[in-house]
């Protein structure tokens, strides 16, 4: 496995993992100096009774609930963040609790930027966000095991006018505390359990083939892959399996920390583009595109990429003993395609509302996505369009 000549590894906020840990979220808020809390979530999470569990947990501490912003859509948007910030101002909140998937957590991160800087979110776009002051305390409570957003340094927010997903990133954006409670994922239906789990798997695999990968992120990603291989099918089949739910949360968190440091590549660039253009759910887009991205990357630095994919295959439990690296990679690609089908997820872009005449727009958007710049080699527009056609 190759090693970058220089790397820097950053650890996000504190991680607390246990069943029913939300029961003591008030205590955790006291530890980080929160006084007036705004909960950021979506209507589905609220309807499932998960916000109520957090509200009850606030009683373990002294922080007060100032309000609940429940307008987060599946793909959060610039205008949503602005409305959330307006509620922060109207209720006098000084801290945030996000409850939900990546969209809710990313909305909270982007809202935190505005709580520090004010103005319009688009005013704060830059390669790396450097805050002018201290960001507000933020506890992230994931209700999916996939995005790892509770421990990453980025917030992905859609801009409907540009039909793009924008990435705001910087170490300060990581939530203060990631609260991993499997009870909060228990109501997640099978198709969302599967798609968010595939999102976590794509984070791990892409962080390993990223040009910025290094031994620490590799170690996190490879063990997370082992956990996902074992527990994703179980969690999808039986949502009441708390062991599977717990280990999927841990795996998603490990994958999040891995790719927060090593970054992702062409698969995520295309997934962001498909989501921005046609609203394809992020986990579904990654599940569809992952085997084709892996297949494309095989040709870059074969002495390195192939050996890395062999490690991924071994972590997934694929029998590659006696196979050379190229054969091991072929088995990995086939495994990923079959896993998507076995989990009951769509296998082609044509199944999820992407029109064939829209593939070129998706390819163009992917080429300017920040994730593309960490992919092995330098994909051209024609390469990306060819991948999308294969995945169509």
Secondary structure elements and pairings:
Elements (H helix, E strand, L loop, with lengths): L13 E4 L7 H7 L4 E5 L2 H5 L2 H8 L6 E6 L8 H14 L3 E6 L1 H16 L20 E5 L11 E6 L4 E6 L7 E4 L9 H20 L5 H23 L4 H21 L3 H13 L3 H16 L4 H14 L9 H18 L16 H9 L13 H10 L2
Parallel strand pairs: 1-8, 2-3, 2-4, 4-5, 5-8
Antiparallel strand pairs: 6-7
Tell me what the structure shows.
The chain has 392 residues and is an alpha/beta fold. It has two domains: 14-184, 3-Layer(aba) Sandwich (Rossmann fold); 190-390, Dehydroquinate synthase-like, alpha domain (Up-down Bundle). It is built from 14 helices and eight strands. Strands 1-8-5-4-2-3 form a six-stranded parallel β-sheet, with helices on both faces. The longest helix is centred in the middle third of the chain and has 23 residues, at 215-237. 54% of the residues are buried.
């Amino acid at each position: 496995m190759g090693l970058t000549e220089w790397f820097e590894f950053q650890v996000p906020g504190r991680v607390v993992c246990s069943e029913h840990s939300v029961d003591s979220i008030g205590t955790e808020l006291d530890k980080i100096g929160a006084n007036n809390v705004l909960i950021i979530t979506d209507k589905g999470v609220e309807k499932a009774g998960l916000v109520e569990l957090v509200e009850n947990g606030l009683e373990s501490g002294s922080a007060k609930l100032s309000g609940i912003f429940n307008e987060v859509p599946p793909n959060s948007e610039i205008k949503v963040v602005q409305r959330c910030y307006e509620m922060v101002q109207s209720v006098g909140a000084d801290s945030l609790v996000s409850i939900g998937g990546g969209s809710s957590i990313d909305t909270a991160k982007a809202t935190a930027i505005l709580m520090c800087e004010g103005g319009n979110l688009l005013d704060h776009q830059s390669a790396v966000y450097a805050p002018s002051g201290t960001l507000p305390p933020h506890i992230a409570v994931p209700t999916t095991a996939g995005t790892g957003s509770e421990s990453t340094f980025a917030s992905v927010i859609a801009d409907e006018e540009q039909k793009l997903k924008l990435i705001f990133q910087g170490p300060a954006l990581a939530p203060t505390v990631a609260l991993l409670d499997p009870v909060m994922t228990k109501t997640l239906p099978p198709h969302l359990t599967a798609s968010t789990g595939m999102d976590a798997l794509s984070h791990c695999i892409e962080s390993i083939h990223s040009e910025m990968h290094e031994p620490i992120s590799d170690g996190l990603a490879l063990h997370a892959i082992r956990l996902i291989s074992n527990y994703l099918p179980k969690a999808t089949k039986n949502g009441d399996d708390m062991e599977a739910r717990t280990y999927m949360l841990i795996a998603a968190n490990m994958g999040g920390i891995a790719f927060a440091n090593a970054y992702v590549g062409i698969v995520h660039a295309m997934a962001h583009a498909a989501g921005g253009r046609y609203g394809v759910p992020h986990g579904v887009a990654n599940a569809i595109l992952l085997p084709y991205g892996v297949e494309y990357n095989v040709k870059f630095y074969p002495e390195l990429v192939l050996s890395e994919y062999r490690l991924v295959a071994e972590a997934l439990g694929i029998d590659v003993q006696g196979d050379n690296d190229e054969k091991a990679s072929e088995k990995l690609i086939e495994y990923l395609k079959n896993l998507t089908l076995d989990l009951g997820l769509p296998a082609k872009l044509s199944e999820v509302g992407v029109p064939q005449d829209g593939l070129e727009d998706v390819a163009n958007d992917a080429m300017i996505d920040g994730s593309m710049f960490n992919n092995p080699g330098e994909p051209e527009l024609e390469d990306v369009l060819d991948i999308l056609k294969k995945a169509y």
